[in-house]
Design goal:
By secondary structure, this protein is α/β, with parallel strands linked by helices. The chain is built from 34 helices and 19 strands. Helix 21 crosses helix 22 and helix 33 packs antiparallel against helix 34. The radius of gyration is 31 Å and the shape is globular.
């Protein structure tokens, strides 16, 4: 079996371990820090066996339907149908050798238990009770199906694990009576093995089954509390040829219906062909279930064991030996508990994950998406097909539709299913923080090419990377690509402006990958624009649509935690929350981020009345018109900006809005400590009104922003503000386009970041390695502070920010990034002959020491190192002479 278990359920409860270290990662740090910092990341992938990989590579493009799971923090789930092809024209079993795991929402507040295997011996475990029932249409069908008798013999052969009761043939009423008697006498049956016969419809695409029979069965099973149903189906075609796709569709439909009608666990399989492999698989499923494993993992362990017994070279034979199995299981069902004395469940070794850390040492793993993928199934399927057709695909849509979240979930699935070959690598790059072509090439080059630091010409570096991409399969997500090609006035700070040369370099590199027929790289671009003019070579374009009214209502119900019944009623009286939510849905226009902000605003105690929503709607409409008139934005983006500004205006007073103007300077990540340092500096210089702000008050303001969905919580006490919120705040303050060098807030921010970087540098030098975590979070802030300090000529702040970045870069061996940063600021400290400049003479010694270290240890240039050392000696000599002259005078 090709088993693709979604790891989010395990990582949700912090139980994922690394096979190399055995340590438990901080899920909150991983899930929240990674997306907010925009670093280049590796994805956590689960490696299957060699046999499974070979089978998957041979059938991936021919699979009919696979379901994967997204489990979120609010105890709800969504099943995604991954249709790998629309109309398969083959009846080979190899096309359907796949398991489908679909999990429905939690029904209790208790955390889901992880798949576990009992460590006790089999003779210590009380046998499971199994009822084998055959429901034939005609009595002679029992004789025509010898597999049933062999299955009974198999179950009796493991009587120490399973206690079997047979009911062949049987009617539905007899089955109900047997289950009722067992519950009264000596306990319930744990497993119901049903043997059924289908008559497939002549229409290939038909999924029609007798729902009446299954409704009755589901009612009986649920009433008698039978936790697991094994659905064994046979097909009576009356001599008519049956396509394999028809068999599989009927199997899925029957299993899914039982599951949807209330059965906690359903394992469905076809018993017409391959009786030996079916018997062998079922024996292993029975054994695994008896040891305490949940249904999905039991099926996976059984099928993996079957594959291990076959030769690796016989891929087609292996695939033909694997019958189609479908597993539907509720996440709160868990495994069958070990009921014996002293048996301690332990985590299955098969569930361990292999964690790969990215070469630049950035935040570790792409985190789980915290929102359900409502209404996004077809878009996910379209992305998969687009990347099968070409090397580059472009996903575009309006601001707030969830392009980043969608791409992260697709990247996770693509890596888990070996979409990038046997050893998948998934990278993530955000262009919100300025990332030029050298930055992009360093991601792969500094880890994959030994002499990377000695390669000087950019053309040679690019050629080497393209050759690596022909050997290493990977999926690379380029997020926020509109930052590269849009006008700089669309952004809040000029540090994000890409020059025409930088734009052309990135586009040429992208086109080189796109047109390379031998490249194994797949690039998924996220952008607000469709880039038809700037990227004409990209043929695969997918537009992310807005949510429909029904999908928006479902998403709003998920946010509010309600059942959704009240929100869809339209005959509500005035001034009720339901009517307010209806108006929110009308204004939200299917935009998830806009819906989050509106729902968060309506959830505040002071805003529950409909009048508050009407005031908000009126305000955002007026502000949207002003935004469009000024040319700041248009369409959905203007609506989102207007909504954010209206929420801010109605939720904060003038002093608090003035404080939020300081918050908008940060690069996504905000900490109350740094904000407090800024207010103290401003209070002591030109803005005494900031002196009343305490650290507790600042934390309260940030918490209120999080409650209004204007910020997201990052690890610890850090918060992350989306760029659209920052732009809205700056537009309200009237400084949305460029940074004013005389604006005191930017001076305060640069000084605070410089002090922070210097503090982390001293702490690390004293042996405190825990500062690496906040440094990785503050990386984008420190980088922006460096460039802003240069423009404001705050050289002390520049040195402090560089010291913080040096700790992060050098500890993670990101030598290329550190070398480029040092080289970037060379004109401000040295002339063309490496001599100090008068305005920065005080910091020349610190700077030239970094130049010497890079030249000797990274660039391996002895001549350059000697020359720099001579300048350093000469500078020391001049300082001594100047000191003597000062003393003499």
């Amino acid at each position: 079996m090709l088993e693709f278990l979604w790891p989010a359920t395990d990582r949700l409860h912090g139980n994922t371990t690394s096979s190399s270290t055995g340590k438990t990662p901080d899920d909150e740090l991983i899930a929240n820090t990674a997306p907010s910092t925009g670093e280049l990341l590796f994805l956590c992938v689960w490696h299957a066996s060699a046999e499974t990989r070979e089978v998957w590579n041979s059938v991936r493009h021919r699979l009919s339907e696979v379901h994967f799971v997204i489990v979120d923090d609010d105890e709800s789930a969504a099943a995604i149908p991954w249709e790998m092809m629309q109309a398969p024209q083959t009846s080979l079993p190899v096309s359907y050798a796949v398991a489908s795991f679909v999990r429905r929402p939690f029904r209790s507040t208790a955390p889901a238990s992880n798949p576990s295997v009992s460590s006790g011996s089999c003779d210590e475990v009380e046998p499971l009770k199994l009822l084998y029932a055959s429901l034939p249409r005609e009595p002679d069908e029992i004789n025509r199906n010898p597999l049933g008798s062999r299955l009974l013999q198999l179950a009796n052969g493991v009587s120490e694990l399973i206690q079997t009761t047979s009911l062949r043939p049987a009617k539905v009423l007899q089955l109900s009576r047997q289950l009722e008697l067992s519950s009264k006498d000596d306990g319930h049956f744990q497993i119901l093995h049903l043997e059924l016969t289908f008559t497939p419809d002549s229409n290939l695409n038909s999924q029609r089954i007798d729902e009446t029979t299954y409704e009755e069965l589901a009612r009986i099973v649920s009433a008698r509390r039978v936790p697991l149903v094994l659905l064994q189906v046979a097909f009576d075609s009356d001599g008519t040829p049956i396509e394999a796709v028809q068999v599989y569709q009927q199997l899925i439909c029957a299993s899914r219906l039982l599951f949807q009608l209330g059965v906690d666990r359903v394992i469905g399989f076809c018993a017409d062909d391959m009786p030996d492999s079916v018997l062998e698989t079922l024996s292993r499923i029975y054994g695994a279930i008896a040891e305490g494993v949940c249904a999905g993992v039991a099926a996976g362990l059984a099928r993996t064991a079957l594959g291990d017994e076959l030769t690796q070279s016989s891929v087609r034979y292996l695939a033909s030996r694997i019958p189609a199995v479908v597993v539907y299981e509720s996440p709160d069902a868990g495994g069958f508990s070990a009921r014996s004395r002293g048996v301690i469940p332990q985590r299955s070794r098969n569930a361990e994950s292999v964690v790969n850390f990215c070469p630049n040492g950035a935040a570790q793993i792409i985190g789980r998406c915290v929102f359900p993928m409502i209404g996004r199934q077809q878009t996910l399927i379209a992305i998969d097909r687009a990347l099968d057709s070409g090397n580059v695909a472009l996903l575009h849509g309006a601001t707030g539709l969830g392009k980043t979240h969608l791409s992260v979930e697709f990247a996770r699935w693509y890596g888990l299913t070996n979409g990038t070959d046997n050893h998948p690598v998934v990278l993530f790059t955000s262009f919100e923080r300025k990332t030029t072509l050298p930055d992009l090439l360093d991601v792969i080059g500094q880890d994959a090419i030994v002499d990377w630091y000695q390669i000087a010409p950019m053309r040679e570096k690019q050629a080497r990377i393209l050759s690596v991409l022909r050997l290493v399969p990977l999926l690379w997500v380029w997020d926020a690509f509109e930052c590269v090609t849009r006008d700089p006035s669309s952004f809040d700070l000029s540090e994000h402006h890409y020059s025409e040369i930088e734009q052309n370099e990135l586009i040429e590199f992208l086109n080189a990958i796109n047109l390379d027929g031998h490249s194994k790289a797949r690039i998924l671009i996220n952008s607000r624009d469709d880039h038809r003019n700037s990227l004409p070579e990209v043929r695969q374009r997918i537009q992310l649509p807005q949510m429909s009214q029904h999908e928006a209502a479902e998403f709003a119900c998920w946010i509010s935690g309600g059942s959704g019944a009240a929100i869809q009623k339209r005959d509500q009286p005035e001034n009720t929350p339901a009517l307010a939510q209806q108006r929110i849905l009308e204004v939200g226009a299917g935009n998830p981020q806009l819906l989050r902000i509106l729902m968060a605003f309506a959830a505040r105690p002071e805003h529950t009345e409909t009048a508050s929503i009407d005031t908000l709607v009126s305000s955002l409409m007026n502000r949207r018109e002003l935004i469009e008139a000024r040319g700041v934005a248009s369409g959905p983006e203007a609506t989102l900006l207007g909504t954010i500004q209206a929420v801010l205006h109605l939720s904060f007073n003038s002093a608090e809005l003035q404080l939020l103007g300081l918050v908008a300077i940060f690069r996504r990540v905000i900490h109350a400590r740094t904000l407090f340092m800024m207010t103290k500096y401003l209070a002591s210089t030109s803005n005494p009104e900031f002196g009343d702000w305490t650290a507790a008050k600042l934390s309260f303001i940030l918490e209120r922003c999080r409650n209004l969905a204007l910020m997201d919580r990052v690890t610890g006490s850090w918060s992350a503000m989306p760029s659209i919120v920052s732009l809205a705040i700056q537009d309200m303050a009237g400084h949305k386009t460029t940074v004013n060098p005389e604006f005191d807030a930017h001076v305060a921010w640069c000084r605070s970041m410089g002090i922070l970087g210097h503090y982390y540098y001293d702490q690390f030098a004293a042996g405190n390695r825990s500062v690496l975590i906040p440094l990785s979070v503050e990386c984008s802030n420190l980088q922006t502070a460096c460039r802003m300090s240069v423009r404001l000529q705050l050289w002390s702040s520049l040195i402090g920010s560089m010291q913080g970045l040096k700790v992060l870069y050098c500890d993670s061996r990101r030598w290329s990034e550190w070398s480029r940063l040092v080289t970037e600021f060379q004109p401000f400290f040295c002339d063309d002959f490496d001599r100090p400049k008068s305005e920065t003479r005080r910091y020349y010694g610190l700077y030239i020491d970094e130049r010497i270290a890079l030249s000797s240890e990274v660039e391996k240039d002895p001549a350059r190192t000697i020359s720099l050392q001579q300048e350093r000696v000469e500078w020391d000599r001049r300082n001594v002479v100047d000191a003597k002259d000062c003393v003499a005078s």
